[in-house]
Amino acid sequence: LTMNKRADILGGVCIFLCLILFIQSLKLLSFSGIPNIQIHIINMLLHVGCFLSAFFLSKLGFFKLARWLLILTYISYLITAILLWKMNLNIQFYFLLGMFTSLYFFHQHETMQLWITLWIFCGLFIYFQNGVFVSGRAEDWQTGLITVNTWTLSISCFLLATWIRRQMDHNWQQMQLAEQKTRQLLQKVIPNHIASYLMSASHPNIDRCITEHSFISIIFIDFTRFTPYSRQTSDRNLVMFLHRIYSTFDTLAEQHHITKIKTNGDQYIAAVGLDNQSLSAYETSQRCCEFALAISRKFAIEADADIGIKMGIASGNAISGIIGQTKPTFDVWGNAMNLASRLESTATNREIQVCQQTMMYSMQSYNFCSGLALSLKGLGQVT
Known about the structure:
Blueprint: H1 3-29, H2 37-59, H3 63-85, H4 94-101, H5 111-132, H6 140-189, H7 192-200, E1 211-224, H8 226-232, H9 235-255, E2 259-264, E3 267-272, H10 281-302, E4 308-323, E5 329-333, H11 335-346, E6 352-354, H12 356-362, E7 374-376, E8 380-382
Helix pairs in contact: 1-2, 1-3, 2-3, 4-5, 5-6, 6-7, 9-10, 10-12
């Protein structure tokens, strides 16, 4: 359970106990002949105040302080109630109830504090059940039988509470592993900041999942001579080829801190600057160029000789985010996205074609051919 969930449970227990004690106080007023009834009512109302204090502390975020105040107030009320009534009303059995309730108040790493609390509840039950109400008021065989039953019940409850706690810890660990796997899978599909927000938000707001980027570099990677190759091989072999090549691209993307956007058939799309907006324009452009060269070198080693590769890189502003409710997908939109797609489509085999802006920010580290003036669909004249 998370800290907020534990605080909600603790607050609910406090309100429930306040309600019970308040009803009991009203009920006592309807009886006549109860000795010292004013003391009983004052005792209840004082403890109601303490329970309310624990409730407000939990809502203010002071969970540990509220937890200990609740436990101590609960113990204090049971002890004072037993001593004030001076008769066996079986109030001591509420100590066993406290054992099971306290299981939800301690975190997984607070094992020692939980065990001490369980032993205190267990010891108080044994003391008041066996030491106060039995001694000197029953025959020897009755005393012995009550003592055996008391110890058996208390130890059984302690062992049962321990077993429940271990099951809770095991289930919590399984849930934590499942959440970790889900988070890792989600972070492979969408950027880290969006994945973290979606995992933490109970009702995600789509506006929080859309980000404007002042400068990113986008790369489109596509295969040449792919259509003739696809006709010569089976569909299964074609898919296995794409899986092997895209897995290699994914590995290189992780090594160069590149964010994979998506794959579209034989097209691989990635970007620099989506996860880390603190990168400068120089770092963004140069990292994307280095990734393109690494792809080119690796592809020459691993790919079939019948297939070639071409790439397009564009830099500029863009907007990214997830859209849709059923199977939402992450994507990037903007002029840089369109320009990178056009540069890839007009490139030739084994050519990495970049926009003028990418060249300007990367020319200190890489060599470029002379610029060509191209008329691109929807973009006009582009160098």
